[in-house]
Write a structure and sequence with these properties.
Blueprint lengths: L1 H23 L3 H23 L6 H28 L1 H8 L4 H10 L6 H17 L13 H26 L5 H25 L9 H26 L7 H22 L7 H17 L2
C-alpha cells in the first residue's frame, strides 16, 4: 500500500508542476524534453546500482515502445487542449481507467467481485461529478471529436496499462532497465523533435534556461510515479488485483488534484464537485473491503 500512495503523490507532483509551468509560460517542448533527462538519469543510476547482466527482448521492446507512447500521449493531450479546451480534454482522459481495468479482467483472469464492481462504478460516477463538463457544454464539438476522444482515451489507457504489461510479461529483475529505457527513448525522441522544430523555424521560443530547469524538476516525480506504480503492482497486498491498484491510483489522484485546485488555485467548486468527493471516498472504501 505504501508504494501505491507514493505513486499517487508523485503523480500529483507532476500535475502541480505542470500547472505551475503553464502559469509561468514555460516552453512546453523544452520542459517535456528536459524532464526526460532527469528521469532517465535517475533510471540509469538505479539500473547500474542493481547491476546490468543483460536485457531480454521483452524488456527492450516494451521499454522502447513506452518511449514512443509516453510523448505521443502528451502531444495528443496538448492538441486536445488547444482544440477543445483543458476542461473537456482533461475530463475525457479520466475514462482511460477503463483500459487497464478491462485488460486485467479479460486477459489476466482477475476476478470481479461485487464490491470491486461497485467501487469502479462509484469511481466513474465521481469522475463525472468532479468534472466541469456537463451535457450542455458538448454542443460545439465538431466531427473530429468522434475519432479524437476515443484515441485520446485509448492512448492514456495504454500508457497506464504499459506498466502492467511489463509486470505480467517481463522479468522482475529488469524493471529498472524497463523504466530507464522508456525515459531514455522518450528523451531522444523529444530532443530530436525540439532540434527539428528550431531548425525549420517553427518554434519562436528558444531553449531557455528556466524552461530547461523546470523540466529537470518535473522529471523527478515523473520517474518515481512510474517506478512506484510498478512496485505497487508487484506488492503482495495487491496480488491479482491490478484493477484495484489502477482505480485507487486514479480516484485518489483526482481527489488530490481537485483539492489543490480548490484550495491553492482557488478554482470554482460546485455542489456536484463536493458530492463527487464523497462518492470518491465511498469508492475507496468499497475497493478496500
Amino acid at each position: 500500500m505504501t508504494f501505491l500512495l507514493l505513486a499517487i503523490l508523485a503523480s500529483f507532483g507532476i500535475s502541480a508542476l505542470v500547472k505551475l509551468n503553464e502559469l509561468r509560460g514555460a516552453n512546453t517542448q523544452v520542459v517535456l524534453a528536459s524532464n526526460y533527462i532527469a528521469a532517465s538519469a535517475l533510471g540509469w543510476a538505479l539500473a547500474l546500482g542493481h547491476g546490468i547482466d543483460g536485457i531480454s527482448t521483452t524488456t527492450l521492446a516494451l521499454g522502447l515502445g513506452g518511449g514512443v507512447l509516453w510523448p505521443a500521449t502528451f502531444y495528443l493531450m496538448m492538441w486536445g487542449i488547444r482544440t477543445y479546451g483543458m476542461s473537456l480534454a482533461g475530463s475525457v482522459t479520466r475514462l482511460s481507467l477503463s483500459v487497464p481495468v478491462l485488460f486485467a479482467l479479460l486477459f489476466l483472469g482477475e476476478s470481479l467481485t461485487v464490491t470491486i464492481a461497485l467501487g469502479i462504478a462509484a469511481t466513474l460516477t465521481a469522475f463525472y461529478l468532479l468534472s466541469p463538463i456537463r451535457p450542455g457544454h458538448l454542443h460545439g464539438v465538431d466531427r473530429r471529436a468522434i475519432w479524437f476522444f476515443p484515441v485520446l482515451v485509448l492512448s492514456f489507457g495504454l500508457a497506464d496499462l504499459w506498466v502492467n504489461l511489463f509486470n505480467t510479461l517481463g522479468a522482475s529483475d529488469e524493471k529498472s532497465l524497463f523504466i530507464t529505457l522508456i525515459f531514455t527513448a522518450a528523451g531522444l525522441l523529444m530532443w530530436g523533435i525540439v532540434h527539428r522544430t528550431l531548425r525549420v523555424g517553427l518554434q519562436r521560443l528558444p531553449v531557455d534556461r528556466e524552461s530547461f530547469v523546470r523540466g529537470l524538476l518535473l522529471g523527478i516525480p515523473n520517474f518515481f510515479s512510474t517506478y512506484f506504480l510498478l512496485e505497487a503492482l508487484n506488492d503482495p497486498f495487491f496480488t491479482g488485483q491490478s484493477t484495484v491498484v489502477y482505480t485507487l491510483y486514479s480516484v485518489l489522484g483526482v481527489m488530490l488534484a481537485f483539492g489543490a485546485g480548490a484550495l491553492v488555485w482557488r478554482e470554482r467548486v460546485t455542489r456536484a464537485n463536493v458530492l463527487g468527493v464523497l462518492v470518491a471516498i465511498a469508492a475507496i472504501v468499497l475497493l478496500n473491503l
